[in-house]
What does this fold into?
Amino acid sequence: MDGWEIVRRAAADRRSGAAEIAARAAEGLVLLGAQRDVRRAVRHLVKAHPAMAPLWRLGAAVLGSDDHRAAAERFADQLRSESDGVARAAEYALPRRATVLTHSSSSNVVSALQRNRKRIARVLCTVSLPGGEGRALARRLERAGFESEVVSDAAMASAAERADVALVGADAVTETGAVNKVGTRLVALAAQDAEIGFYVLAGSSKLLPSRVWRLVEPEAESYEETPLSLIDAVIAEHGAMGAAAVRRRVRRIEIPRALTARKAPR
It folds into this structure.
């Protein structure tokens, strides 16, 4: 399969998470030769998945390097190490024999549950409309040996009352909040009312300046931003971060204007 075919498949993927899509996209970029093709491919990817921070960060890495292949390979390695680190760090949020409430379908949440299996009693998966990813997640967890239950989105509040903690992933984390599937903010509010923790599992590749999110927000109809004030911590590969730490880390990130321009550079 050539690089463009891999890129197109990553762009068309509507089922996988941001980190998974970015990892496949990196494989495709490694196979591209001309810098112009790399620019076109990156623009194609972020247009297809405007809310997914790892694609913006991958684009920034390859466009800012003299060797786009090496940059893409390094980014793919980073994604793999992040996933393992987030799963380890998630123990911070998990009481023993926890009933966990989750929304949408996050590879980071799945990895964290698997790594901390002995702490998990049950997983409550919201249906997560539109798309209904929660049903597929519940089946996946059951095949992996977890006790899971699908709950309607309208029953988030009562599900939070039965849970010990809420864990969700994110497609992006800005200096103002976590961007994820619509309904995530309602889960955060339900967790607050039920007096349980609400944690976002997201590696460093998910950090993205809010100016980029504001630019693409109208095109990302199935996503919303949950304010940092509703999040107990963002758990990254190096541990838990509060709002101040998130803001400090996001300020260091630069996304090239060539990537955010409305017209692709010639």
